[in-house]
Structures are given as C-alpha cells and as structure tokens.
C-alpha cells in the first residue's frame, strides 16, 4: 500500500481549501452532536446528575426497544421493495433506445422534483378509506367494506418505497451501465441462458450499485419523519417521531438525546455492514 | 446440441442486414466455408465485418438470407445453442471470475461438475501456455495473456465454428506475430473452422486459407491470398490489399485476356482486364503495384520526374511525377549499389510484365 512520497507533489493541494467546509461542519454538525452526547449523559432533565441512566432506561424498556426494532425492520422492508422494483427499471434502462431512456429517467427523477409533503399527501388520497384504491375496488365490486391501507405498516412501506425509489434506481442505473455489454453476449455464446447470465454475470457485477442503493435507501427510509408520521398516523411509532415526542412534547431532552445517539449508532452499524459488503464485492465492479 | 469438434462447414447464404436505424450494414453476402478452413474477413473500418460476425454468432437476426452450419440452418437458434465460439475484440472476460472460472464458464453452463471443469480449464490453459495463471483475476493479466484466456474460454465449449473479432488489434507487433502463429497452430491441431475479422491485410494474407474482402457492406472478392493479391477482381480489392498505383487511361483494343491501354501518363501498355469486359475507347483505371514498375532505359514506357527517394530497409521507394501530373510510387529491391535517385532526375517507367497491370473499367 506504500505510495511513493514523490507522487504526492503532483496532486497535493493546500488543505486550506477545505477549511470553509470544515468550519461549517465543526459549528453545525460536530458541535451539536457533542452537545447531544453531553446531554444524553445526564440522569435528570435539569442536567445536574451525570450518569448512563437514559441509556439503561432505553435498553431495558421493552417499548423503546420495540420502536427501535420496528424502525430498523421498516428500513429493511422499504429497501427490499425498492430493490425488487428498482432493479428491473434500471435493467430496462440499459436496454432501450435513447428516447425511452429519457422517459425512464424522467419517471425515476420525478419524485425528487416534488416536495415530500406533497407526495405524502398524495398517498393519503390514494390509500385513504374513501381513497382511490378503495373507491375503485368498491365500484368494481371486489370488496364491500373499505380496506384499511392508511395507518398500516403496508401503507408506510409502499409510500416510503415510492418516495425513496430514486435513491435505489440511480446507483443501479450507473452500476449496470458500467458493465460491458459484450459480457452478456460472451456469456450467451458460451451456452448460458438469460437467467444464468443474469445471476452469474449481471448481478455480481452490479453489486456495488446494489449496495450503494441499499445503503442510501435504508438510511433515508428509517429517518423519513414526515412520511412515517403522516402515513403511519398515531398507531405506528417509529424512532424519529418517538424522539420528537420526547424532546418537544415531554421536554425530556436527556432521554431524547440518548434515543438519538442510540439510533445514530444503530444506523451506523447497519450502514457499515452494507459498506463492508461493498468493499468485499469491490473485486467485481471495479477496473 | 451437436458439437463435433472441428470440421463443420459454414454457409452464409445471401445475407443482408439493415439496422433498425436504417443503416445497410451488409448486403447480399455469400460465403461457402469448408470444414476446418481459416477464413479472414478483411475490410476497412465500418464495412460490416463485425455485423456479419454477430449474425453468424446469432446476436443479430439478419434481415434476409440464411446461415447454415454443417447441415443445419441455424437462423432460429439463439446464440447459446449454436455452438459457435467467439473471441471479442476487447476479450470480454468476466472481471469477477478467476481465469480458471472464466475458461470453465461454458462447461458450467452445460452442467458439467466442478472437478471436471477445473481439469478441462487447466488443460486449455496449458494449451494456450498460461498454466500458472488459473487463480488470477483477468485484470491481473496483460493484454496478450487475456487474449489467450479468451481463446481458451471459447475453445472450452468445443465449438464447431470459431469467430475472432480483430483478435490482435490491441497487441504490439511482436506479440501479434506470436499470437498469429499460436492461433494457426491451435487451429491446425483442433481443425476448427475459423473466421478471423481483421482490417490488417498482412494478417489476412498470412493466416488465412481464403480471404473474403468486404467493402461498404458488399463482398468484393472471396479467394485464396494469392488470388486476392495477384488477381484482384475489383479496383477496390486491388487498392485495399497491398498498395497500388492507379493510372487512368483509354482502351485502344481489348479481348478477354489482354487489353492495350493508352495511359494518360503517355505510354501504351498491355494490361490484364481484371474487372470484366473492357470496351474499346472506354476509360479505365490501371493498377500497378510499386514493386511491379521498373525503370527502363529506352524510349518504351512513360516519362516522369523523380520527386523523392525513400530508402526503406530492404527496398527503396521512389516517388515519381508523371507527365499528366499524377504521382506514382516505384519500389526497387535494394541490391548492391541501388541508391537514392537525385530529386528532379528524368526517368522512364514500365510494368515488369503485362499480367502485373490490372485494368478496371473507370467508374464515373
Ligand atoms: N447497432 C447499430 N445500429 C446502427 N448501425 C450500426 C450498428 N452497428 C453498426 N452499425 C453500422 O453498420 C456498419 C457496419 O458496422 P460494423 O461494426 O459491422 O463495421 P466493422 O467492419 O466491424 O468496422 P470496424 O473495423 O471499425 O470494427 C457501419 O456503418 C456502422 O455505422
Ligand atoms: Mg468491428
């Protein structure tokens, strides 16, 4: 791993160029984070007694743990839905003419061009008791009483999947585009059918994109406060809302801080699992 | 899947292909390749070589015509059932698989067990002289080594036809020669019918039993290397294969074997009517290779003025401007005191023999 010291000269730019951003991060990211950590290490709301009480409380409280668990599970479900739906779109994108490519990329990017709030309300209109889905199914006579779609796990997963879809599709499109199209032909001429080609060549080579997409989608899905709360309603509680309640409604800042730190660590753990997988698969996509 | 190793014949029967974009890539190509032959597809860039290769492999369905391998019309077969091995110009090795797995890929697709696969891969790697590389990844190999692996991978499925798309384009000159010899050796051993796409005429002439010259999507000539070089059937072949001086002239008299032509440069010569019947009084283009021109002392031949002389190792090439203002090149073997001529020297030139000047009807 030894790079010759001489090679540094060519590409060494003054570290000073990074200073503005570093300062920005220092004041608006590192400092609040440290303050959060400091707060979370107090046992009382007034912040007078030091201790790990808040963490102990969270880790021994079945309710808190279940909120954490269901949030992490929600992320996994959304990621899975995005992967299953996003992969074919990305695959298709690489195989159609330039006109259709423009259409596909527009459809993929469209969610990013409207506000999350607007999109979430659209889902309320679609999923509601008198919403589009129920109205259609009822008028077709498929169901008598409206299905409960809003305020369910299913509803939250579907809405979140739509909202986060670009984060999955874009890295996949990039990764698939980097695969030499001749590899498909080579595989085929060697006697492999299209499924074999997909599982032995296309999928392994797109793994870096899969992992990047999963990491982004997962991180975005579990922290999506607005969509989670609006579609999930009162019955479903996820970590962002939980910690908002503790901080804003109950004014229990030390506990809210501890929740944030634990949530942060949990997310970091999941993301680092993804990136480790990514590093292991680097032998594939690169070069 | 019939896969008798080697020896299956290949017929390209009136194949035409038009891409959806409207580009007519190949037009009415007919090739009749005997089992075990090496054929070179030679032509300039964009003339449809790769298209034809991809049609034979089954990646593209031709607009018209048939492909027949052995006794089977294979047009309805997808590429994975044609038993055609193909080596891509950029090798297209699977970057995530080891060399051994790359070579064994086709066998795995046929459901052959792991141990047999590895043994076979090792045998093939020895054949292409890379026995120690089995566990490496493709990017840990040099270009020439990757080339050999691609060849081994294609041979592993015991194809009845082997297609090579510009296999040597990325190699330097010495390695290229090695690989040409190597492929020729492997081909002799296995007897696989082989099609090599190239735009390098020396490669085509040295490696192939027969050469198919393509120009602008059409088959210009299909014959042995000496046919193509010495008895070109079209002006295109004459100028594309080897270098040639093109001298315009008028037919004075002609029969089927010889034509008397008055060159614009100012001489009457006898030429071989190469591209069909010549009519008296018609304009022609006469092609004479630089090595087939000689300096003459008497008043025969045509006059010219030496522009520049280039000593090129074994030969000396003289650039001569003729009376009608066009330039011709003359190549002389360098024997003894053959020396550069003075610039501006007046000389006279004539073809070595009538059969070495080819007359084609002028297209205009
Ligand atoms: N996918 C395609 N769609 C439309 N036209 C194409 C396509 N592929 C090739 N062509 C056109 O068909 C013609 C023949 O292309 P082809 O790739 O067969 O040439 P080639 O002889 O292999 O050239 P080269 O020596 O540069 O590889 C070219 O004019 C090219 O522009
Ligand atoms: Mg080509």
From TrEMBL, chain A:
Limits of the ABC transmembrane type-1 domain: 68-274
Protein keywords: Cell membrane, Membrane, Transmembrane, Transmembrane helix, Transport
Bilayer-spanning residue ranges: 21-41, 67-91, 103-126, 154-177, 255-277
Species: Bradyrhizobium betae
GO biological process, one term: transmembrane transport
Domain of life: Bacteria
GO CC entries: plasma membrane
Topology within the bilayer: Multi-pass membrane protein
UniProt keyword Membrane, yes or no: yes
Family: Belongs to the binding-protein-dependent transport system permease family. CysTW subfamily.
InterPro entries registered for this protein in UniProt: MetI-like, MetI-like_sf
Protein name as annotated: ABC transporter permease
Location(s) in or outside the cell: Cell membrane
Chief place where the protein resides: membrane
UniProtKB/TrEMBL annotation, chain B:
PROSITE patterns reported in the protein's UniProt record: ABC_TRANSPORTER_1 (PS00211), ABC_TRANSPORTER_2 (PS50893)
Domain ABC transporter: 10-241
UniProt keyword list: ATP-binding, Nucleotide-binding, Transport
GO annotation terms (biological process): quaternary ammonium group transport
Pfam families recorded: ABC_tran, TOBE_2
Xref: InterPro entries: AAA+_ATPase, ABC_SmlMolc_Importer, ABC_transporter-like_ATP-bd, ABC_transporter-like_CS, Mo/tungstate-bd_C_term_dom, P-loop_NTPase, Transp-assoc_OB_typ2
SUPFAM superfamilies the record matches: MOP-like, P-loop containing nucleoside triphosphate hydrolases
A single GO molecular function term of this UniProt record: ATP hydrolysis activity
Keyword ATP-binding attached: yes
Gene Ontology terms: cellular component: ATP-binding cassette (ABC) transporter complex
Record function comment: Involved in beta-(1-->2)glucan export. Transmembrane domains (TMD) form a pore in the inner membrane and the ATP-binding domain (NBD) is responsible for energy generation.
Family: Belongs to the ABC transporter superfamily.
PANTHER family associated with the record: SPERMIDINE/PUTRESCINE IMPORT ATP-BINDING PROTEIN POTA, SPERMIDINE_PUTRESCINE IMPORT ATP-BINDING PROTEIN POTA
Protein name per the record: Fe3+/spermidine/putrescine ABC transporter ATP-binding protein
């Amino acid at each position: 791993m030894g790079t010759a010291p001489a090679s540094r000269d060519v590409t060494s730019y003054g570290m000073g160029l990074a200073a503005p951003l570093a300062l920005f991060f220092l004041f608006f990211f590192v400092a609040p984070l440290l303050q959060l950590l400091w707060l979370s290490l107090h046992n009382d709301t007034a912040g007078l007694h030091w201790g790990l009480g808040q963490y102990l409380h969270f880790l021994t409280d079945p309710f808190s743990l279940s909120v954490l668990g269901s949030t992490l599970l929600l992320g996994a479900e959304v990621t899975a839905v995005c992967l299953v739906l996003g992969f074919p779109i990305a695959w298709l994108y690489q195989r159609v003419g330039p006109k259709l490519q423009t259409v596909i990329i527009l459809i993929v990017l469209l969610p990013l061009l409207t506000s999350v709030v607007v999109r979430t309300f659209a889902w309320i209109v679609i999923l509601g008791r008198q919403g589009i889905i129920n109205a259609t199914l009822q008028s077709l006579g498929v169901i008598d009483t409206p299905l409960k779609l809003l305020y369910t796990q299913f509803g939250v997963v579907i809405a979140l999947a739509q909202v986060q879809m670009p984060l999955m599709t874009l890295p996949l499109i990039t990764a698939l585009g980097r695969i030499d199209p001749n590899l498909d032909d080579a595989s085929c001429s060697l006697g492999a059918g299209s499924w074999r080609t997909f599982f032995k060549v296309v999928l392994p080579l797109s793994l870096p994109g899969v992992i990047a997409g999963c990491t982004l989608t997962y991180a975005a899905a579990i922290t999506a406060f607005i969509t989670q709360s609006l579609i999930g309603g009162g019955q479903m509680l996820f970590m962002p809302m939980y910690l908002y309640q503790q901080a804003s409604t109950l004014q229990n800042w030390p506990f809210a801080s501890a929740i944030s730190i634990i949530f942060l660590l949990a997310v970091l753990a999941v993301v680092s699992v993804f990136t480790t997988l990514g590093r292991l698969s680097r032998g594939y996509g690169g070069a | 899947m019939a896969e008798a190793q080697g020896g299956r014949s290949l017929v390209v029967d009136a194949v035409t292909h038009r891409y959806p974009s409207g580009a007519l890539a190949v037009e009415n190509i007919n090739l009749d390749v005997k089992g075990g032959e090496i054929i070179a597809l030679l032509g300039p860039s964009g003339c449809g070589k790769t298209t034809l290769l991809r049609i034979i492999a089954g990646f593209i369905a031709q607009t018209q015509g048939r492909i027949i391998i052995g006794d089977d019309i294979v047009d309805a077969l997808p590429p994975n059932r044609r038993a055609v091995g193909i080596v891509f110009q950029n090798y297209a090795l699977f970057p995530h698989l080891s060399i051994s797995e790359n070579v064994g890929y086709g066998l795995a697709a046929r459901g052959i067990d792991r141990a047999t696969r590895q043994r076979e891969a090792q045998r093939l790697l020895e054949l292409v002289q890379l026995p120690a590389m089995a566990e490496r990844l493709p990017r840990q190999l040099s270009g020439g080594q990757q080339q050999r692996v691609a060849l081994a991978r294609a041979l592993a499925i015991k194809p009845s036809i082997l297609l090579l798309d510009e296999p040597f384009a990325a190699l330097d000159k010495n390695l290229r020669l090695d690989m040409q010899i190597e492929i020729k050796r492997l081909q002799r051993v296995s007897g696989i019918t082989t099609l090599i796409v190239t735009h390098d005429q020396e490669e085509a002439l040295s490696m192939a039993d027969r050469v198919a010259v393509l120009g602008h999507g059409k088959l210009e000539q299909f014959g042995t290397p000496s046919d193509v070089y010495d008895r070109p059937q079209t002006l295109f072949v004459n100028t594309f294969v080897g270098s040639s001086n093109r001298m315009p002239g008028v037919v004075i008299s002609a029969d089927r074997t010889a034509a008397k032509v008055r060159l614009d440069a100012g001489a009457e010569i006898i030429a071989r009517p190469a591209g069909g019947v010549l009519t008296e009084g018609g304009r022609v283009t006469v092609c004479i290779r630089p090595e087939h021109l000689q300096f003459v002392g008497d008043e025969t031949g045509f006059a010219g003025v030496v522009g520049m002389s280039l000593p090129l190792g074994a030969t000396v090439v003289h650039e001569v401007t003729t009376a009608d203002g066009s330039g011709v090149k003359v190549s002389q073997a360098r024997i003894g005191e053959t020396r550069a001529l003075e610039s501006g020297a007046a000389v006279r030139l004539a073809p070595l023999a009538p059969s070495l000047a080819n007359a084609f009807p002028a297209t205009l």
